[in-house]
Amino acid sequence: MKSHICALTAVMAAWLCTPATAQTYTMVVNVDQPGATIQPTMYGVFFEDINFGADGGLYAELVKNRSFEFPQPFVGWTPFGNVTVMDENPAFDRNPHYVRIVNDGRLLRAGLDNEGYRGIGLKNGKEYRFTVHARVPDGKQAKVAIELVNSAGENPVKGEITVTGNEWTKYSLVLKSNFTDAHSRLRVLLPDKGTTIDMDHISLFPVDTWKNRENGLRADLAQAIYDLNPGVFRFPGGCIIEGNSLATHYQWKNSVGDVENRPLNENRWNYTFKHKAFPDYFQSLGMGFYEYFLFSEDIGAEPLPVVSCGLSCQYESNEVVPLDQLDPYIQDALDLIEFANGDTTTTWGKLRAQMGHPEPFNLKMIGVGNEQWDKVYVERLEIFTKAIREKYPEIKIIGSSGPEADGDKFNYLWPEMKRVGVDLVDEHYYKEPAWFLANAGRYDSYDRKGPKVFAGEYASHDHSAAKHNNWRAALSEAAFMTGLERNADVVLMATYAPLLAHFDAWQWNPDMIWFDNMQLMRTPSYYVQQMYGLNAGSRVLPLMMEGKPATGQDNLYATASIDDNTGEIILKIVNTGDKASAVSISLDGLGKKQKIASATCTYMQNDNLLAENSLGNESIIPRTRPIDVADKQLSLNLQPFSFGIYRLKISGKK
Ligand code: AHR
């Protein structure tokens, strides 16, 4: 192989050093020596309510502040006429606020508009289900007009319900939109003079949620996540587990039971960045732990809940629950396992059954703490680990290696994780593309005897391009991921982060999927994840390039696996260089009568590393084509800046 001497750091060299002359590289795959099992959990999804990912995103509710529980109760609403917020004799004890609307005749009408999440996205011909809990204080009857209003305020779609009696009752109405508008509003008003009504939990959902579930998910976003074929689903965060303060840490028990009675929580991402304030960012918990477990099941992924370990975000308030007051946090973790797996005679298993899922969710693992560090974390993790192991020895425990991929916190935590004896260690890295390239061999030298690795949050951040989701970032992730797969004996799971971002309300970029109120955009990183997710293979095969694993020599990265279901050999090869590379691949260990019968290549390529997808125009996408094969050998001409997955069908018996 040609060697290069670059007067650059190894990291820079990874992008800039390309061979001056064309040369054919040789890769050898030992097809008769399968190694580590690639866990079905290997390529997964990490979900957090950041960037309006849940409320305003995956959770299909279109009304913001539907229960009037925001600290300023009319946030999201424009009241007109005589409208007041009350809490006497409420419908829901944990969400006690409601509105009283009086049409006292002094004004033309009385009611209120909801603005949704940066508008309400409505589509022509689609149906929307309005629901409300209402009563008439004088016990008589009152009409309520419901309108879907476009952004110009013209020709609303109208419906009506009649509310009877002074007991809180749920009413429902389906309206079909006759317009398409990303910034529509919902209007509720009292048309008749002299009527008064109380209303709470005013809600509007598309009828077509994913799998048509009530209280369901936005169909296009849920489908896009499903299409990744994820093996694990980590939720509900991220930093929101910890909270800005202990008072606002994610409490899963608040997120289950009747959706109307789940108390509001502040979203930890509301004021995180000084230049980006989101005073209207709260968690309704409408998408709560039951919905997370159900979604995991629906997408065929192992659920991975993460619980607070009694530390608020260490970047923010850094509040610590004293060790002698940790019991409620530990009990939350134990009860969560009961909620997921307990039989229906247990307290929490019974609630799961009442919510619609008598069968257990088969929870196998739990994360304790998110991005924690220092002794305060380890002390708490140890207590959690002991308690969980005592009651649920079969549950795998995931600890944290802190917020960085190396350095003091990381170096302190890894030995501590080994000492405590967690099953997996969650590593996080948001780094430049060059780091990802330089780290394709990161796990080659990891201790095989210690805890396994969960690469729980990672993404390539191209600072030179304002951290956009460009092709350079995605290509570097593809290259890095060859190293995850090659080390499948150590790395059991990996999840890109974050998953979702609303174009009009994001706090963090890059993100895997972007969306507005009408449609979504899959980034090049999404497609890299999908290519891996759909082509993981079952067991790793040794692949050597000129006698070594391909970890970036001459800009080439590669890994191989076998799919035990189909018998196919799967090669993943990345060329991060700006020149095409000729590669000759031979399959060693095929029987005399065996040969490559056919092969397909699914590939992504773009000459412009800065290229991005945009809403309505996804040009950086995978394409699949058949490729020529010759007996036991494959000759490839790898395009510059390309990522290809080759599936080889083998014919003949050994
Ligand atoms: O993914 C965004 C954030 O990054 C997560 O909430 C946190 O764990 C990390 O700092």
Question: Which helices and strands occur, and which strands form pairs?
Answer:
Elements: H1 10-16, E1 24-30, E2 43-46, E3 77-80, E4 82-86, E5 98-103, E6 110-114, E7 120-122, E8 127-135, E9 141-149, E10 157-164, E11 169-176, E12 181-190, E13 195-206, H2 219-226, E14 232-235, H3 239-242, E15 265-266, E16 282-283, H4 289-299, E17 302-307, H5 327-341, H6 347-354, E18 365-368, H7 374-391, E19 396-400, H8 407-420, E20 424-431, H9 433-438, E21 452-460, H10 471-486, E22 491-496, E23 500-502, E24 513-515, E25 520-522, H11 524-534, E26 539-541, E27 543-545, E28 556-562, E29 569-575, E30 581-588, E31 595-605, E32 623-627, E33 633-638, E34 642-651
Parallel strand pairs: 1-30, 2-14, 2-22, 14-17, 17-18, 18-19, 19-20, 20-21, 21-22, 23-24
Antiparallel strand pairs: 1-27, 3-6, 4-5, 5-13, 6-12, 7-12, 8-11, 8-13, 9-10, 9-12, 15-16, 24-25, 26-28, 28-29, 29-34, 30-33, 31-32, 31-34
Helix pairs in contact: 5-6, 7-8, 10-11
Alpha-L-arabinofuranose binds at residues 48, 50, 237-239, 370-371, 403, 428, 457, 497-498, 508.
Question: How does this model look, in words?
Answer:
The chain is an alpha/beta fold and 654 residues long. Helix content is 18%, strand content 31%. The protein contains eleven helices and 34 strands. An eight-stranded parallel beta barrel has the order 2-14-17-18-19-20-21-22, surrounded by six helices. Strands 3, 6, 7, 9, 10 and 12 form a six-stranded antiparallel sheet that branches. The chain has a six-stranded antiparallel sheet with strand order 26-28-29-34-31-32, covered by helices on one side. The longest helix has 18 residues, at 374-391. Residues 1-21 have low confidence and may be disordered. The structure holds alpha-L-arabinofuranose (AHR).
